[in-house]
Amino acid sequence: MAGEFDLIARHFKWPAPEGVLGVGDDCALLPVSPGHRLAVTTDLLIEGRHFLPDVDPEALGHKALAVNISDLAAMGARPLGCVLGISVPLADHDWLERFARGFRALADASGCPLVGGDTTRSMHGVAISVTAIGEVPLASALTRSGACGGDDIWVTGTLGAPHVALELLQGRLSASAEVLDALRPALERPDPPVSFGTALCGIAHSAIDISDGLLQDLGHILDSSACGAQLQYDALPVHPRLGLFAPEIVQHAALNGGDVYQLCFTAAPSARDSLVALAREHGVRVTRVGHIDQTRRLQVVGCPVPVGPDGMGGFDHFG
Ligand code: ADP
Ligand code: MG
Fold it and tell me: What per-residue confidence (pLDDT) applies to 307?
């Protein structure tokens, strides 16, 4: 694309940290600690499918990286760096500058420097692909398959706000501008608990990030670990500003609402005190929401509105 190198130099060439060879060579070079494995994850965001054409580019830059950092956190991986593939119909420097600002703020805050990428011109709209790379101790990487009968189930952050914010923005629900302003950051600026995820290695037995809804994502842990679970509806950390919506809306948002980018993880009951202390140290809210059992079913106890026979129903791309 014409001006590709100018565009990269202007928006995406940031100084690499000590020990890292970043943007400007054919490959980035990243150091890996002994006894560790690389954790690699990628996400593709397409205009019209994952974001609207009029999205705030700074929020989009933040979110494009956040959804990947969230996957690293779910594996207990410490970020090493990321690469950005971006395809744009024209070089709109104002748009690119704002996109890069949002991306960079989160890259700096989470210690995940941009070390390379690819830039092309597109025929239709913007497409963004971010790959994040982290490292995780070989012996204690978090996976979906490690849940054990009797484990507590924990959730970080709060549930439901991104779903309701999207419903409001798309006109399927209505509320005051003040309520929308309070919920919108959860949708546009997800804040995955990356350092806390790293600290869960050796403590948590299994973990996943909540992208498609708590029931669906916990369901993946249950499938992989061949066990069941009981959730306590009353214990769920529903976002405090959802109180004014009807109970069925709140319940659906909490159980099935996606785009949360917080963690659901399981750990032995003996780890409760240390987990609470660890969460406080990392400034993360943690809530114990249920336990793993051997039933091979996922039950939610105490719902205000009856849950359908399948109990599931989060967002499924191919559903
Ligand atoms: P190559 O042709 O070897 O693939 P490019 O000409 O595509 O390299 O890119 C030149 C340099 O700029 C490379 O280091 C590449 O990783 C980096 N780069 C290209 N696009 C981006 C981007 N969007 N963000 C960060 N770095 C990028
Ligand atoms: Mg290229």
Answer: 72
pLDDT for 52: 84
Task: Kindly give the distance from the C-alpha atom of residue 266 to the centroid of ligand 2, in angstroms, as a whole number.
Answer: 42
pLDDT at position 311, please?
A: 47
**What ligand is nearest to the CA atom of residue 82?**
1
Distance CA 140, CA 143 (A): 9
d(CA 83, CA 23) in angstroms, rounded, equals 9
Other CB atoms closer than 10 Å to residue 140's CB: what's the count?
13
Give the residue, by CA position, lying nearest to ligand 1 atom 27. 117
0.90 surpassed by pTM? yes
CA 48 to chain centroid, in Å, comes to 20
Task: Check pLDDT > 80 for residue 314.
Answer: no
The residues near 104 (Cβ < 8 Å, ≥ 6 apart) are 14, 61, 114
Q: Note whether 57 and 93 are within 8 A (CB).
A: no
Neighbour count for residue 39 (Cβ, 10 Å):
21
3-state SS of 63-90 is HHHHHHHHHHHHHCCEEEEEEEEEEECC
Which of 27, 119, 130, 133 for mutating ligand 1's site (highest number of atoms within 8 Å of CB)? 119
Residue 77, both tokens: 């991986």
pLDDT tens for each residue of 86-120:
999 988 999 999 999 999 999 999 999 999 999 99
List, in order, residues 6 or more apart from 317 with CB less than 8 Å away.
none
Residues with Cβ within 8 Å of residue 259, at least 6 apart in sequence: 162, 163, 166, 187, 190, 211
Burial 87-120 (b: 16+ CB within 10 A, else e): bbeebeeebbebbbebbbebbeebbbbbbbbebe
Query: 10 Cβ partners below 8 Å, 6+ apart?
Result: 93, 96, 97
Give me the pLDDT at residue 212, please: 96
